[in-house]
Write a structure and sequence with these properties.
The protein is mainly alpha-helical. It has one domain. The protein is 67% helix and 0% strand. Helix 7 packs antiparallel against helix 9.
Length: 214
């Protein structure tokens, strides 16, 4: 079975009926015991996937920053009023399309987390994030929602909305407005990457805890 320890048998919900405190306790003949998946193997698979997805996220936000500099800065600075519609509006729509495309790409790469999470829920190392995956109706976004949360994914998708920027730029000079745009991009990037890093630390901590079991 290659389980981390006998605790892996007793600490999963499916074996709650056993009501024994050690592997040495006597079991009645015919007692059914659920054998969980190998938590260590699942966590290693999750760790590998996390380290694979993280560079994709960073590359996306670098692409966003480059595109914003190339397409938005000159347009914004060419107007005395940053909320001027027309060319600026089209550029913002293009930036939002790029963000949504990036989200779709990361969602596809993140699908594995839902699969791994469902397996981990059957072990004794599952936490609230893993359990939230069960019963989710988010479809292909489930893995991404586990990774960074639906709230953060929504903020990411709305990052270049025209209404958001007209409100953010209203009453500011163009230079200050552009700084606000860059700051918002960096904030979204930081929040998303911090969530991924938190998942990496969480996974590594679970792996270390397995090593201390007896």
């Amino acid at each position: 079975m290659h389980l981390s320890s006998w605790r892996a048998l007793l600490k999963i919900p499916s074996n709650a009926h056993l009501e024994i405190e050690s592997i040495d306790a006597a079991l009645e003949v015919g007692t059914k015991i659920a054998i969980p998946p190998n938590a260590g193997a699942l966590l290693k698979e999750r760790s590998y996937a996390l380290h694979s997805v993280r560079p994709l996220l960073l590359a996306h936000f670098e692409k966003q920053a480059f595109s914003a500099e190339a397409e938005l800065r000159d347009i914004a600075l060419s107007h005395s009023v940053p909320s001027t519609p027309g060319e600026l509006s089209r550029a913002l729509a293009g930036m939002q399309a790029l963000a949504v495309e990036g989200i779709a790409d990361i969602a596809r790469a993140s699908a594995i987390f839902a699969e791994i999470g469902r397996g981990i829920v059957e072990t004794h190392v599952a936490n609230v994030n893993d359990r939230a995956i069960i019963g989710s109706t988010a479809g292909e976004m489930t893995g991404l929602y586990w990774l960074i949360s639906g709230q953060h994914a929504d903020a990411w998708a709305d990052m270049w909305g025209l209404e958001l920027w007209t409100n953010k730029w209203r009453g500011r000079d163009v230079a200050t407005a552009w700084c606000a745009a860059e700051q918002h991009l960096n904030t979204i990037r930081s929040v998303v990457v911090q969530q991924v890093d938190a998942r990496i630390r969480e996974t590594l901590a679970l792996e270390r805890n397995l090593l201390t079991e007896d």
